[in-house]
Design brief:
The complex is a heterodimer of chains A (197) and B (198). With 197 residues, chain A is mainly alpha-helical. Chain A is 78% helix and 0% strand. In chain B, α1 crosses α2. The chains are: A mainly alpha (197), B mainly alpha (198). At the A-B interface, α2, α3, α6, α7 and α8 of A face α1, α3 and α4 of B.
Chain lengths: 197, 198
């Protein structure tokens, strides 16, 4: 949770960046780069794509900064840009490369940019987590995006609706459908865990 | 209560958007429906697993390099940007400026170059003046003759372009009926001249 001081500091940085300060914008980028990267990575599962799209998101935000009217927080606005770019990228990639993205995902552990520590490796090796990830990747893009924003990123339905450009009810239904599909495909694993508990 | 509806409500409850009234109804249903209880348990388990953010932990060196790369790109964007147009050339201000110029030009035009009125060219105006002249001429035959002569001279001068204002459009002469054409006026003038000479 951000403090009021942080909000003021961020607002000052946004104003300075809107006046053309590259330094102020770089500082804003530094504040949000990891969160944006992880949100994008959650959808692409590829370090290269996540890196490129995060950079592109910041560049797009910088170019359209004068159009930012502060109706929402800078982070939400930035997030919207990143998610839209990612969804467009995935749609394009799906058309161009079919299921190649699923193969790229395999290269994650050996990615040169990623220092995958042992707990992370343990997490990735967790069977249920792997199964959830596979099942998530098999979901339609709209369901996956809504699920990631609300469940993984912890956003409210309202924030997710703003980012995805749809109503809160639509977000609610998409998440419900996503959960229903996930639990159906993961039923044996979820029940197995339950028995084990 | 339909179990399909319960499934949707279970999802909403996990996200914290279910109303308290529906939550009570949901709880009551779960107590009596084993299938929905299992569904709810699976969703809770799924939520607990999926909510853990996963992804590579990237080193501080990576983020430094990422920031440097971004800064270089931002700087190049700044260099590519064309300088903004001067204030007076921006479109809103351009319209205002153009409007002001047009207004000034019109003001100057009407202040210093007013078109000449007929009264400025002819000492006698129509209406009351003509009525007064008519009254005076009718009582004094000598004055009537002089006046006729003056009119004829004036017509001759006008036709010959001696007034220095170009050939006169006789149709505009206030001393004659406006419905007459230039040709008719010329004919009238010729007839009057003939009469005078004879």
């Amino acid at each position: 949770m951000k403090s009021v001081t942080q909000d003021h500091a961020e607002d000052a940085l946004v104003r300075a960046a809107q006046k053309g300060s590259v330094q102020a914008f770089t500082e804003l980028a530094r504040l949000h780069q990891e969160k944006i990267y992880h949100a994008v990575f959650g959808l692409t599962r590829s370090h290269t794509d996540a890196d490129d799209l995060t950079q592109e998101s910041f560049m797009t935000a910088y170019r359209s900064l004068k159009r930012f009217r502060r109706k929402c927080s800078f982070y939400t606005w930035l997030y919207r840009i990143a998610i839209n770019l990612t969804l467009n990228h995935l749609k394009r990639a799906k058309k161009e490369r079919g299921n190649k993205l699923l193969d790229e995902r395999v290269a994650l552990a050996g990615d040169p940019g990623g220092d995958v520590s042992s707990p992370e490796r343990a997490s990735l090796n967790n069977e249920l987590q792997m199964k959830i990830r596979d099942a998530l990747d098999a979901l339609p893009l709209a369901y996956r995006a809504a699920f990631n924003l609300v469940v993984t990123e912890g956003m409210t339905h309202g924030q997710a609706a703003y980012i995805l450009g749809c109503s809160e009810n639509t977000v609610s239904w998409r998440i419900h459908k996503a959960r229903k599909m996930l639990q159906a495909s993961l039923k044996p694993y979820l029940e197995e865990e339950k028995i084990a508990l | 209560m339909r179990c399909k509806k319960v499934q949707k409500w279970t999802s909403d409850r996990i996200d914290g958007v279910l109303s308290s009234r529906r939550e009570r109804t949901l709880r009551a249903h779960l107590e009596s429906c084993a299938s929905c209880r299992d569904y709810s348990a699976r969703l809770n388990k799924l939520q607990a697993e999926a909510a853990n953010p996963e992804g590579p932990r990237l080193s501080p060196e990576y983020w430094r390099e990422f920031g440097g790369r971004l800064e270089r790109k931002l700087s190049s964007v700044d260099k590519e940007r064309t300088p903004s147009a001067p204030l007076f050339l921006r479109w809103r201000w351009g319209f205002v400026a153009a409007g002001s110029v047009v207004l000034c030009a019109l003001a100057v035009r009407f202040a210093f170059f007013r078109p000449q009125k007929l009264g400025d060219v002819y000492p006698l105006s129509q209406g009351e003046t003509l009525a007064r002249i008519d009254q005076e001429v009718s009582t004094d035959p000598g004055l009537a003759n002089l006046f006729d002569q003056a009119i004829l001279d004036s017509i001759e001068e006008a036709v010959q372009g001696k007034w220095g204002i170009g050939p006169l459009e006789l149709g505009e002469d206030p001393l004659f009926l406006e419905s007459l054409t230039d040709e008719e006026i010329k004919i009238c003038a010729a007839e009057i001249l003939k009469e005078m000479k004879s």
